[in-house]
Amino acid sequence: MSASVSARADAVLMSTYRRAPVVFVRGAGSWLYDDAGKAYLDCLCGVSVCSVGHANPRVARAVSEQLGTLVHVSNLFYTLPQVELAERLVALSGLDRVFFANCGATANETAIKLARRWGQQGERRRHGVISLDGSFHGRTLATLAATGQPEKQATFQPLPPGFSQVAPEDLEALAAAIEPTTVAVLLETVQGEGGVRPLGERYLQGVRRLCDERELLLIVDDVQAGTGRCGRWFSWQDLGFVPDIATTAKALGGGLPIGACLARGAVAAAFRPGDHATTFGGGPAVCRGALAVIEEIEQRALLANCAARGAELRAALERVPGVSAVRGRGLLLGAVLERPCAEALVARALELGLVVNNVRPEVVRFAPPLSITVEEVAEAARRFAGALAAVAS
Ligand SMILES: Cc1ncc(COP(=O)(O)O)c(C=O)c1O
């Protein structure tokens, strides 16, 4: 890496990330290239973002055409790409209406405000949101308050009130935490940042039943697990339940920033003009990009590819000496290591030309493009095994 880039960055960027010593200059499909021309197999894809591959030609064409036509008019007017994308998301999700935000956190802020808005109707005025230990919902103040990771919250107290967490997989704990002011339960079907921990199908269905019994909304944060990453358009779609509100972001824009909050029925109709807004959300260029992402997933049958390659990657990682288990769904997988050496392993993997990241001291996350090939899966497992063997010795 050119040392001058890291020195320049350190001088002018706020110090929020511990960055790896690589400057990427180009991407193509599952591959990234650094400033010395070295190739890396990208099994992280911008943390579950570039799911249709880097520099995807269909997305690039759609966005550049739109950039040359109409970039921005605000949400005070109608634009066709936004309406078309909302129609597609409604059809793919089975939910009824969409609000476009700019990223995962702002999609979740929208979901929380929508639940509160719905909770203000009728006699009971409800606002409380229960989420899960180990969850991650974003870095804005409200989404941080919903995030079940006290170490991320500690230095930013006081956080907005109205949020509490319970242990996952424990319906009794959840039932006991419900207060008269509670309006919603918020969860991820796979806790990505929390260590790639999938929640059980029976638990999720139990949460849905409890929400119905206690008249609570169920919000699924599908920011990381959605847009095909678990083998379905939305991660809940083969888990036997439907949420009232769902958020998605990351992969939806093919690398451009977008977030979406979807809802059904009366909840979807709770906002009134003036309740919520965004300058950039749902802009024509990013919506054209998202429409191209959806088309790419459909035309190349990438949901089926995700399921097939996901099963292969899981099996290959399970065979690597030093891996005790592999968990997750589709192509959102966590390799659990016998020893807590994930940080050193990820650094070594990078040297060997494999991009992955460590979400826990003993867990390495794989979130490759949904378009990854059979050969690339085998190559990723081979490089990962090499890195683990090197770290172990
Ligand atoms: C489940 C989940 N929710 C929300 C977020 C926040 O998304 P963003 O960084 O786009 O604000 C993330 C980011 O990793 C996430 O994984």
Polypeptide structure, described:
It is a single chain. With 393 residues, this protein is α/β, with parallel strands linked by helices. The chain is 38% helix and 19% strand. The protein has a 7-stranded mixed β-sheet with strand order 4-12-11-10-7-5-6, sandwiched between helices. A 4-stranded mixed β-sheet has the order 1-2-3-15. Helix 3 packs antiparallel against helix 11 and helix 13 crosses helix 14. The chain is globular and about 65 Å long. The protein starts with a helix and ends with a helix. Bound molecules: pyridoxal-5'-phosphate. Pyridoxal-5'-phosphate (PLP) binds next to helix 5. The site of pyridoxal-5'-phosphate (PLP) has 15 residues, from helix 5.
What is the radius of gyration?
A: 21 Å
In CATH, what is the homologous superfamily of the largest domain?
A: Type I PLP-dependent aspartate aminotransferase-like (Major domain)
CATH class term of the largest domain: Alpha Beta
CATH topology category name of the largest domain: Aspartate Aminotransferase, domain 2
- Note poorly predicted spans: none
Give a quick account of the main beta sheet: strands, pairing sense, barrel closure. Answer: 7 strands, mixed
Which strand order spans the largest sheet, edge to edge or round the barrel? 4-12-11-10-7-5-6
Spatial gap, N to C terminus: 26 Å
* Share of residues in helices: 25-40%
Count all strands and give the number. 17
Which key terms come to mind for this protein?
14 helices, binds pyridoxal-5'-phosphate, Aspartate Aminotransferase, domain 2, 2 domains, 17 strands, 4-stranded mixed beta sheet, 7-stranded mixed beta sheet, alpha/beta
